[in-house]
Amino acid sequence: MDRTMECEHSEQFTALMSLELDGRLDGDDRQRLEQHLVTCPACRVEWQAMQQVSALFAASPMVGPPLGFAVRLDRRLAEKKKQRRQLFGGLALLTGSLSLAGVTVAVVALIVLGVIAWQSFDSSPAVQQGTELASQVASGVGLVGKGASFFLGDLLLRYGAPLVLLLLAGLVLLVALWAWLLVKRPGGNHHNGYV
Asked: pTM of the full predicted structure?
């Protein structure tokens, strides 16, 4: 006959047996277990097997970790800590570079938008002279600056709103990444329950 048919509460009594072996069973539950063991042969066999295994463990000598285990563990933990600091340092450098690039692009875009707005709002001679002066200053910066301003100006004329939204989303992402790095930095004030 199936063992589950013989004792429908076997899991409950197995838990009680385990607690009894650990010396953590109170008087009422101990009495309940003893009464059940008298009437249930399947649980009695399990109880005898659990007592034998417990006796074997009690008779076996305690074995410590291998020689040098603590030293190797400390080295590995130090290596992991160093790798994590290097990773966070790299992320901080990357986000710093991206932040600087984002701010630079934003400033150039604002300058180009200002020049475009200035030219489109008023075509008076004074404004055109100011625009020409701004063009001369931009050309004085160099060919690269002038090429970049033409490229950005054309790009902003065609795709101004999506680029501004993309720039804002990128800046929000960078701020979120900076905040995350600040909270999760190695040696920070966060605690994981082990330190």
From this structure: 0.34
34 neighbors 69 (Cβ within 8 angstroms)? no
Q: Which two tokens stand for residue 131?
A: 């625009």
Tokens of 29: 């539950």
> What secondary structure letter does DSSP report for 193?
S
Which tens digit of pLDDT belongs to each residue from 125-165?
Answer: 555 565 566 666 655 556 556 566 677 677 667 776 777 78
Tokens 């995350």, residue?
180
> Six-digit token pair at 172?
């929000």
pLDDT tens digits, residue range 11-66?
888 888 899 888 888 888 899 888 998 988 888 999 999 999 999 888 888 888 88
| Cβ contact 51:17 at 8 Å | no
DSSP strand E in 89-142: where? Answer: none
Distance between CA atoms of 105 and 98, rounded to whole angstroms? 10
Cβ–Cβ < 8 Å for 113, 160:
yes
Radius of gyration of the chain from its Cα atoms, rounded to whole angstroms: 37
Q: Tell me if 174 sits within 8 A of 102, measured CB to CB.
A: yes
Evaluate whether 44 touches 37 at the Cβ level (below 8 Å): yes
Cα Dmax for the chain: 111
**Closest C-alpha to 10, from 46, 49, 51:** 46
